[in-house]
């Protein structure tokens, strides 16, 4: 019986090619569908990722808002003015960043989520107006006039105490899919833990 003189490597290459061709034919004949990609937004998209984006946008405001400096122990009114102005400026910047993030969020997995985003965006616009006005009042008051300064400070704090922060999680209460997703999204859990200390 004659031995083949074909090099071993060439024979292996032929076998591998045949196996691959057979595998390809088998998968084609079996008709197994290629899984459709998960939508980036709208129905079928990842509800946890969507909820995380919404809560993350609100966190942009909530984190600086809960980091107010303590003014009670200071008698240096110009220093208090600078610290309070810096705090309010950080909150305004956070609100602006949050509004930009909300504008970039795609359609929700459930249409009710789109309404929650619209509500949050409206609330954030009001927040920007409130905190910008408060910062302007603090920046323009004469810190060398204790009576005028303390009066302005009291008025600003009273205004901020009436601010209603956005609460997108509450807007999702009637939508089980998104409510469950919010419970699993880390930014939403962080937002829930901050909610009690937000200015109200």
Number of domains: 1
Q: Would you identify the regions where 5 or more consecutive residues have pLDDT less than 50?
A: 1-29
Helix and strand sequence: HHHHHHHH
Biggest sheet statistics: none
Q: Classify the secondary structure makeup into a structural class.
A: mainly alpha
Tell me what portion of residues adopts beta-strand conformation.
under 5%
Compute the CA-based radius of gyration.
Answer: 29 Å
Outline, from the CA principal axes?
A: elongated
Count of DSSP H/I helices? 8
Distance linking N and C termini: 95 Å
Kindly state the percentage of residues in helix: 55-70%
**Count of β-strands:** 0
Average pLDDT rating = 80
């Amino acid at each position: 019986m004659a031995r083949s003189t074909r090099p071993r490597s060439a024979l292996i290459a032929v076998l591998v090619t045949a196996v691959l061709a057979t595998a390809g034919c088998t998968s084609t004949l079996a008709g197994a569908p290629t899984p459709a990609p998960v939508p980036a937004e709208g129905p079928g998209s990842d509800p946890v990722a969507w909820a995380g984006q919404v809560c993350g946008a609100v966190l942009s405001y909530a984190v600086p808002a809960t980091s107010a400096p303590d003014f009670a122990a200071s008698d240096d009114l110009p220093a208090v003015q600078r610290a309070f102005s810096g705090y309010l400026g950080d909150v305004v910047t956070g609100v602006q960043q949050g509004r930009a993030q909300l504008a970039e969020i795609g359609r929700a997995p459930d249409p009710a989520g789109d309404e929650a985003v619209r509500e949050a965006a409206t609330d954030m616009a009001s927040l920007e107006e409130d905190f910008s006005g408060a910062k302007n009042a603090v920046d323009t008051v004469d810190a060398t006039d204790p009576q005028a300064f303390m009066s302005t400070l009291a008025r600003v704090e009273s205004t901020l105490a009436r601010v209603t922060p956005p609460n997108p999680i509450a807007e999702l209460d009637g939508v089980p899919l998104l409510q469950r997703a919010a419970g699993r999204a880390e930014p939403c859990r962080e937002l829930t833990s901050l909610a009690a200390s937000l200015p109200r």
